[in-house]
Amino acid sequence: MLDRCPHLFVMDPLHRIQFEGDSTVKLIQEAKRRGFLVYSCTPDDLYVANGMGRAKASLVSVSKDRLIAEESIDIGFDQVSVIWMRKDPPFNMDYVFATYILDLAPRGTLVLNRPDSIRNANEKMFALKWSELGPNTLITRSIQQARDWAEELPDKVVIKPWDGNGGRGVLVTHHRDSNFRSMLELLTENEEQHIVVQQYLPEISKGDKRIILIDGEAVGWMARIPSETDHRGNMHVGATVESFDLSDRDRHICKSIGPTLREMGLLFVGIDIIGDCLTEINVTSPTGICEINPMMGLSIEKMITDAALVRLNQIQ
User: Fold this and answer.
1) Contact 85, 77 (CB under 8 A)
2) Catalytic site residues?
3) What is the pLDDT of residue 1?
4) 73, 154, 208, 243 — which has fewest CB within 10 A?
């Protein structure tokens, strides 16, 4: 199997992919460059027959500006070498159920990132395992508790959904804001949902740092600078990208979490750091390859694929 080394990418539909800026496209291009067969499917295309995970997939070709779905195939997980879970959030029960199916991959098939670890490493909650590296944080659904806690902070506060992505629902406010309670009511859905209440980090003005780790090692990084009209460091809302040098604190954070990432089979991870604080550990479908590569003269997709093949050889 290794001579053709089929790769299956579980991802969003091909027609929804932003070809020029998508990290999954880079991974597919690298697999094709090496002569590997590449298939794609969505989580909806996964199913199980007699205990074997399977997918209704399409063979993928790559043109100058898009991914093309060619012949369709019903394929068992035992017929592919590597399965990449690259479906973008939201991380909901459909996503979780897809990881249950991916758990049924046979021993000789490598799944990245490891499905059980994706389930256990929620982007915002997982970072709290290293709470000493992050900002003061409260997880609650109690409006009064959130208000009391915010009053103890010296400055503004960030409130956001625990399961948000791409900056969705991230609000910067203050306990004296007359709309503060209303914001909490909306985000908690009147105390039906937990939210994250976090110390505001003014260093966000200098950028939300994204660092890519491969098998627990930092390999590439960029700073996402918020626009003048939006406090969020997300590129789709206007943030710009700049280079920066890793600080001693950044390196300490990476070294602190790296061994756990490696042990959990989280091969491709993107962490977010604001100032000196770790804020998120992104394991579901990390991005940043397309922006970091030209700034640092790297080919991160090649490094990730190399690391994946090392892992594959270890299990076969």
Assistant:
1) no
2) 124, 160, 210, 224, 232, 272, 280, 282
3) 42
4) 154
Is it the case that residue 137 has pLDDT exceeding 60? yes
Q: Are residues 169 and 245 in the same domain?
A: no
Residue 49, CA atoms < 13 Å, CB-side half-sphere: 10
Residue 216 and residue 262: Cα distance in Å, rounded? 5
Q: Is 54 a domain residue?
A: yes
User: Which structural domain range is residue 144 located in?
Assistant: 136-200
Number of domains forming the structure of the chain: 3
Instruction: State whether 105 and 164 are in the same domain.
Output: no
Domain end (from 113, 147, 179): 113
Residue 200 main-chain phi, psi, to 5 deg: -70, 135
pLDDT number for residue 101: 98
CA distances from 200 to 45, 162, 239 (A): 41, 16, 18
CA-nearest of 260, 264, 250, 263 to 218 is 250
Compute the distance between CA of residue 205 and CA of residue 172 in angstroms, rounded to an integer: 13
Strands 217-225 and 110-112: unpaired
